[in-house]
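Hi support team,

I'm filing this because I wasn't sure whether my run with FE2/S2 (inorganic) cluster finished correctly. The job status page said complete, but I'd like someone to confirm that the output block is well-formed before I use it downstream. Pasting the exact inputs I used:
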Amino acid sequence: MKEDKNLHDYEFTNDQYSQLDEIIDKYGKSQKNLIPMLEKIQQILGFIPISIQERIAQKTGISENDIYGVVSFYSYFTMKPRARHRIQLCLGTACYVKGGKEIAETIESMLNIKQGESTPDGRFTYEEARCFGTCGLAPVMSIDGNVYGKVKVEDLEEILSQYK
Ligand code: FES
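And here is everything the job wrote out:
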């Protein structure tokens, strides 16, 4: 994954780099501030590609591996730009056994993308997630933070059509 060349190929404006450096200065070099610092950076840039992780490492002295480890571990963080709408489908145990897998396959075929990818028109990013803590509503899906419970395959078209 780290060798994925596409993850290096993003360009940012000088203004974005200045904002980035301000955030890094504000949070300092302590590893315990790494997660809040990355959250802030993602709010500004939208995602945290490898090139940005390298810059953070250079300026803070925190190792690139540690930064990469955090960004790749938490599903909140992304190394690729996201589309306008973010679909997160829970594939935790309860959701999986109550039809989550079929919903996953249907979303992938409707949008013609795989989990972790975005549609070429920039409309949807589709991600699989772990338990949302609302297993009683399984299977559960969230779009831009709006939670849909007891989702059925036949509901998907109607739900997705609400997001342009
Ligand atoms: S397993 Fe899906 S919400 Fe808990």
